[in-house]
Amino acid sequence: MKKNYSYIGISFIILVFGIWAVPEIVRYMLGPDLAFVEREGKKAKVPAFSFTNQNGKTITNDDYKDKVYIVEFFFTTCPSICPIMTENMLKIQNEFLGNPRVGIASFSIDPEHDTPEVLKEYAKNKGITKPQWHLLTGEKEKIFKLSNEGFNLYVGEAAEVEGGFEHSGFFALIDQNGNIRSRIDENGNPIIYYDGLEDKGIQMLKEDIKKLL
Q1: Could you tell me if 156 and 127 lie in one domain?
Q2: Domain count, the chain
Q3: Any transmembrane segments, and where (predicted)?
Q4: What is the pTM of this model?
Protein backbone atom coordinates (compact mmCIF):
# COMPACT_ATOMS: atom_id res chain seq x y z
CA MET A 1 0.00 0.00 0.00
CA LYS A 2 2.86 2.35 0.86
CA LYS A 3 4.36 1.57 -2.53
CA ASN A 4 1.14 2.72 -4.23
CA TYR A 5 1.24 5.98 -2.28
CA SER A 6 4.81 6.46 -3.46
CA TYR A 7 3.78 5.97 -7.07
CA ILE A 8 0.92 8.43 -6.62
CA GLY A 9 3.29 10.95 -5.05
CA ILE A 10 5.82 10.60 -7.84
CA SER A 11 3.09 10.88 -10.47
CA PHE A 12 1.79 14.04 -8.82
CA ILE A 13 5.27 15.60 -8.83
CA ILE A 14 5.73 14.72 -12.50
CA LEU A 15 2.33 16.21 -13.32
CA VAL A 16 3.10 19.46 -11.48
CA PHE A 17 6.51 19.67 -13.11
CA GLY A 18 4.94 19.09 -16.52
CA ILE A 19 2.38 21.86 -15.99
CA TRP A 20 5.22 24.26 -15.15
CA ALA A 21 7.86 22.99 -17.56
CA VAL A 22 5.93 22.62 -20.81
CA PRO A 23 5.02 26.33 -21.12
CA GLU A 24 8.61 27.22 -20.22
CA ILE A 25 9.95 24.86 -22.89
CA VAL A 26 7.54 26.30 -25.46
CA ARG A 27 8.51 29.83 -24.37
CA TYR A 28 12.18 28.93 -24.84
CA MET A 29 11.54 27.47 -28.29
CA LEU A 30 9.54 30.49 -29.44
CA GLY A 31 12.01 32.97 -28.02
CA PRO A 32 11.40 35.99 -25.78
CA ASP A 33 7.88 37.36 -25.51
CA LEU A 34 6.94 40.81 -26.78
CA ALA A 35 5.74 43.41 -24.33
CA PHE A 36 3.57 46.46 -24.74
CA VAL A 37 5.65 49.51 -23.87
CA GLU A 38 3.75 51.42 -21.20
CA ARG A 39 3.62 55.01 -20.03
CA GLU A 40 1.77 55.99 -16.88
CA GLY A 41 0.23 52.54 -16.72
CA LYS A 42 -1.19 52.65 -20.25
CA LYS A 43 -0.06 51.15 -23.54
CA ALA A 44 2.20 53.61 -25.35
CA LYS A 45 0.80 54.39 -28.78
CA VAL A 46 2.33 56.36 -31.63
CA PRO A 47 0.88 59.90 -31.53
CA ALA A 48 -1.06 61.07 -34.57
CA PHE A 49 1.22 62.54 -37.24
CA SER A 50 1.01 63.94 -40.75
CA PHE A 51 4.12 64.58 -42.85
CA THR A 52 5.26 64.55 -46.47
CA ASN A 53 7.20 61.66 -47.98
CA GLN A 54 9.89 61.50 -50.66
CA ASN A 55 7.23 61.43 -53.38
CA GLY A 56 5.47 64.55 -52.15
CA LYS A 57 2.58 62.53 -50.71
CA THR A 58 1.04 63.24 -47.30
CA ILE A 59 1.57 60.27 -44.98
CA THR A 60 -0.30 59.83 -41.68
CA ASN A 61 -0.85 57.12 -39.09
CA ASP A 62 -3.64 55.77 -41.26
CA ASP A 63 -1.14 54.77 -43.94
CA TYR A 64 0.38 52.34 -41.42
CA LYS A 65 -2.93 50.97 -40.17
CA ASP A 66 -2.90 47.15 -40.00
CA LYS A 67 0.85 47.15 -40.68
CA VAL A 68 3.80 46.25 -38.50
CA TYR A 69 6.32 49.04 -38.92
CA ILE A 70 9.62 50.43 -37.70
CA VAL A 71 10.32 54.05 -36.79
CA GLU A 72 13.64 55.88 -36.87
CA PHE A 73 14.81 59.50 -36.73
CA PHE A 74 17.65 60.50 -39.05
CA PHE A 75 18.87 63.15 -41.50
CA THR A 76 20.43 62.75 -44.92
CA THR A 77 23.63 64.71 -44.26
CA CYS A 78 24.38 62.94 -40.98
CA PRO A 79 28.10 62.08 -40.98
CA SER A 80 28.11 59.66 -38.05
CA ILE A 81 25.48 57.07 -37.15
CA CYS A 82 22.84 57.61 -39.87
CA PRO A 83 24.74 55.76 -42.64
CA ILE A 84 24.95 52.72 -40.36
CA MET A 85 21.27 53.02 -39.45
CA THR A 86 20.27 53.22 -43.11
CA GLU A 87 22.38 50.20 -44.04
CA ASN A 88 20.77 48.22 -41.24
CA MET A 89 17.28 49.41 -42.14
CA LEU A 90 17.96 48.20 -45.68
CA LYS A 91 18.44 44.74 -44.18
CA ILE A 92 14.94 45.01 -42.75
CA GLN A 93 13.63 46.21 -46.12
CA ASN A 94 15.21 43.30 -47.96
CA GLU A 95 13.97 40.75 -45.43
CA PHE A 96 10.35 41.89 -45.94
CA LEU A 97 10.57 43.42 -49.40
CA GLY A 98 7.60 41.55 -50.82
CA ASN A 99 5.41 41.90 -47.74
CA PRO A 100 3.10 44.94 -47.88
CA ARG A 101 2.14 44.41 -44.23
CA VAL A 102 5.58 45.60 -43.09
CA GLY A 103 6.40 49.31 -43.30
CA ILE A 104 9.15 51.73 -42.31
CA ALA A 105 8.86 55.38 -41.24
CA SER A 106 12.07 57.43 -41.34
CA PHE A 107 11.54 60.94 -39.96
CA SER A 108 14.09 63.58 -40.93
CA ILE A 109 15.18 65.82 -38.06
CA ASP A 110 16.61 68.30 -40.57
CA PRO A 111 13.49 69.01 -42.63
CA GLU A 112 14.70 72.41 -43.81
CA HIS A 113 17.37 70.65 -45.84
CA ASP A 114 15.62 67.32 -46.35
CA THR A 115 12.90 68.34 -48.76
CA PRO A 116 10.89 65.69 -50.63
CA GLU A 117 13.25 66.13 -53.59
CA VAL A 118 16.32 65.58 -51.41
CA LEU A 119 14.72 62.56 -49.76
CA LYS A 120 13.80 61.07 -53.13
CA GLU A 121 17.38 61.36 -54.34
CA TYR A 122 18.60 59.89 -51.05
CA ALA A 123 16.22 56.94 -51.45
CA LYS A 124 17.46 56.35 -55.00
CA ASN A 125 21.12 56.47 -53.99
CA LYS A 126 20.64 54.15 -51.01
CA GLY A 127 18.51 51.55 -52.79
CA ILE A 128 15.30 52.24 -50.90
CA THR A 129 12.65 50.57 -53.05
CA LYS A 130 10.01 49.22 -50.66
CA PRO A 131 6.75 51.12 -51.34
CA GLN A 132 5.91 51.04 -47.64
CA TRP A 133 9.17 52.79 -46.64
CA HIS A 134 8.40 56.49 -46.30
CA LEU A 135 11.11 59.11 -45.74
CA LEU A 136 9.21 61.89 -44.02
CA THR A 137 9.71 65.63 -43.74
CA GLY A 138 7.66 68.52 -42.38
CA GLU A 139 7.71 71.10 -39.60
CA LYS A 140 10.80 70.71 -37.43
CA GLU A 141 8.97 71.45 -34.18
CA LYS A 142 6.43 68.71 -34.85
CA ILE A 143 9.10 66.16 -35.75
CA PHE A 144 11.14 67.03 -32.66
CA LYS A 145 8.03 66.74 -30.49
CA LEU A 146 7.15 63.37 -32.01
CA SER A 147 10.62 62.05 -31.22
CA ASN A 148 11.20 63.65 -27.82
CA GLU A 149 7.69 63.26 -26.41
CA GLY A 150 6.00 60.64 -28.55
CA PHE A 151 8.86 58.15 -28.39
CA ASN A 152 11.09 59.55 -25.64
CA LEU A 153 13.96 59.38 -28.13
CA TYR A 154 16.07 62.51 -27.78
CA VAL A 155 16.73 64.74 -30.78
CA GLY A 156 18.12 68.25 -30.67
CA GLU A 157 20.20 70.80 -32.49
CA ALA A 158 23.83 70.98 -31.37
CA ALA A 159 26.16 73.34 -33.20
CA GLU A 160 29.22 71.78 -31.57
CA VAL A 161 28.38 68.32 -32.94
CA GLU A 162 29.44 67.30 -36.44
CA GLY A 163 26.33 67.52 -38.60
CA GLY A 164 24.61 69.93 -36.22
CA PHE A 165 22.15 67.48 -34.63
CA GLU A 166 22.09 64.96 -31.81
CA HIS A 167 19.79 61.95 -32.04
CA SER A 168 19.34 58.33 -31.09
CA GLY A 169 20.38 55.27 -33.07
CA PHE A 170 17.45 53.21 -31.79
CA PHE A 171 14.62 51.76 -33.87
CA ALA A 172 11.05 51.48 -32.54
CA LEU A 173 8.76 48.54 -33.35
CA ILE A 174 5.07 49.34 -33.86
CA ASP A 175 2.26 46.80 -34.14
CA GLN A 176 -0.83 46.85 -36.35
CA ASN A 177 -2.78 48.88 -33.80
CA GLY A 178 -0.17 51.60 -33.35
CA ASN A 179 1.21 50.24 -30.07
CA ILE A 180 4.94 50.46 -29.36
CA ARG A 181 6.15 46.90 -28.77
CA SER A 182 9.33 45.53 -27.27
CA ARG A 183 11.21 42.32 -26.65
CA ILE A 184 11.62 41.20 -23.04
CA ASP A 185 15.19 40.59 -21.91
CA GLU A 186 16.52 37.69 -19.86
CA ASN A 187 15.66 39.56 -16.65
CA GLY A 188 12.03 40.00 -17.63
CA ASN A 189 12.35 43.70 -18.51
CA PRO A 190 11.34 45.25 -21.86
CA ILE A 191 14.29 46.52 -23.89
CA ILE A 192 11.95 49.31 -25.16
CA TYR A 193 13.86 49.96 -28.39
CA TYR A 194 16.15 48.05 -30.75
CA ASP A 195 19.76 49.03 -31.37
CA GLY A 196 19.88 50.22 -34.97
CA LEU A 197 23.68 50.21 -34.98
CA GLU A 198 24.32 46.58 -34.05
CA ASP A 199 23.71 43.33 -35.93
CA LYS A 200 22.22 41.79 -32.79
CA GLY A 201 19.57 44.48 -32.58
CA ILE A 202 18.66 44.06 -36.25
CA GLN A 203 18.38 40.29 -35.91
CA MET A 204 16.11 40.66 -32.88
CA LEU A 205 13.99 43.15 -34.79
CA LYS A 206 13.58 40.77 -37.75
CA GLU A 207 12.50 37.99 -35.41
CA ASP A 208 10.04 40.17 -33.54
CA ILE A 209 8.46 41.60 -36.69
CA LYS A 210 7.69 38.03 -37.73
CA LYS A 211 6.06 37.37 -34.36
CA LEU A 212 3.65 40.26 -34.93
CA LEU A 213 2.69 39.32 -38.49
Answers
A1: yes
A2: 2
A3: 6-26
A4: 0.85
